[in-house]
Fold this protein.
Amino acid sequence: MALPDGSRLAIAQLVFYLPALVLSIVVNLRHGFRRELGWFFLILVAVVRLIGNSMEIAGNSERNIRLLIGAAVLNGVGLSPLLLAMVALLKRVNKDLLRGTLVTVLNLARLPILVALILTAYGSSQLYGQASPSTYKSGEDIARAGIIILLVTFGLMVLITATTYMHLRHIRFGENTILYAVTASIPFLLLWLIYSTLVYFDTHNNTFGLTRGNIWARSFMSVLPEWITVMLYIAGGLVAPDVASKEVKDPEMSASGYNPESGPRAARPG
């Protein structure tokens, strides 16, 4: 019997995320398993995707609605860890420049993303379960609230990314690789967010869905953008210098009076 399209896509995701998980572990071993460094969340994305897609394959095979609901919930929360990674990577890039309000913004940005993760997970469980009309409507509203929070937080991160380029010459040598990876990921995360918005705000349209819906729309607006983002962040982690290595410095910055530990210094009077 031929596999349904959803199962074929799920198998493709397993094929992608198995090596992605290994590479994410390698990056974390290189930089340290600390959430504030960002790459920890790549492991989380890979694990969530491996479990979620395994559940989708099993659910389609056994026609098990509970497994499919679980797969839908896990498929709906993958965007939040990527945004958490984005926040952490921006904080690392700006570590020598951050002062005052911007520090507070990046430190607090994790909270709304975590709230959005909970809201979208719970909302998805109601939307894809065998719920009553009132419960379905409640789940729809909760999931939409989560998506709105993600959209606002993402917009803020894009703004911070843009402002970081104003201080590009003061960024620690080698850290610009991470900034470029984050910048390159923005259009793909935006496409993922648009797809998620359509999933939750146009729930009666069969084109968009977390486990059901048009397979091509899901592939090119959700799965592929996520893959590209994960690969960009892994590449950034493999290329960027180990944050613990103090000997990796930009000779031009050192000559101009830049101290990677304390940030830009005022020029000494002649």
